[in-house]
Amino acid sequence: MLACPICQAALTRLDNGVVCPAGHRFDRARQGYLNLLPVQHKNSRDPGDNQAMVEARRDFLDAGHYAPVARRLAALAAERKPGAWLDIGCGEGYYTAQLAQALPQADGYALDISREAVKRACRRDPGVTWMVASMARVPLADASCQFIASVFSPLDWAEAKRLLSPGGGLMRVGPTSGHLMELREVLYDEVRPYADDKHLALVPEGMAHAHGEILEFRLSLAEPKARADLLAMTPHGWRASAEKRARVIDQPEPFEVTVSMRYDYFVRQD
Fold first, then answer.
1. What would you report as the CA-atom Rg of the chain, rounded to the nearest whole angstrom?
2. Mean of the per-residue pLDDT values of the chain
3. For the whole model, what pTM was predicted?
4. Which domains, from first to last, does the chain contain?
C-alpha cells in the first residue's frame, strides 16, 4: 500500500524502514514514524506547524474542548466500515487516535507535513502507520483507501480522488462562518464574512456529495491557558495585535465562544 514518494513504486519493509525496487530507502524514526518527505518536495527547511503551535493544539485538544467534534467524526467513520483509511493532515494525532479506536479492524494511515506534529502524533496509537509526507504527493497507492478524513486541513482534491477506491469516500471537517465568532469579534475591528461551502465548487467530477451536517456547541474557557492555546493554534492568534490577544487571555471571567463545524462526505463514483 505504501508507495515511494520519489518513483511511486511499491515500498516494502526492510530492517527498520522501507525500500522500493529502485533502491530508494526510508528509515523509521525512533519515535516510530516514517519520513516520506524527500528534501526536493519541501518548500522550507521545516515545513508545517512549528513546535509551539503543535504543543498548544495538543494541550487544547487533550483538555477535551473539541471532544464533540472528534466523537462525531469517529461515529461517521464507523458507519462507513472501511478496510483502509487515511487521516490526511493529521497534525498531532488527536482526531486520528479516535478514528483508530472507532475502526479497530481497519488499516490506519496518517500523515502531516510537520515533523514536529507527527513526532507527537505517533505516540497516540502504535497501530497506525504514521508518516511525514506531503498532502500533494501522498505516498500511498492508487485506489488504496476506502475512507479519508480531512480535519481543518488543506486538501488536494485530485490527490484525494486518486487515493480513494470506487465507492470510498472523503469526510471533510471544517469551520462554518460562525465558528469562533466571539473570538474574532474581539480580535478584529471588522469581522469579514466568508462562505463556508466554497469548497463544494472545488470537488472534481466523479465525486458526489453524499452527506452534510453541522455540529455546533458553546465553549466556556475559564482558564487563561486554554484561551492562550486556542489563540496559538488558530490563524487568528497570529494576525491579532498583542493588546487584543491579551484582552482574550487576561479577562477575569470565562470566555464564551461558539464552535461550529461542517461535516461533508464525498463518495468516489468512477
1. 19
2. 93
3. 0.94
4. 39-268 (3.40.50.150)
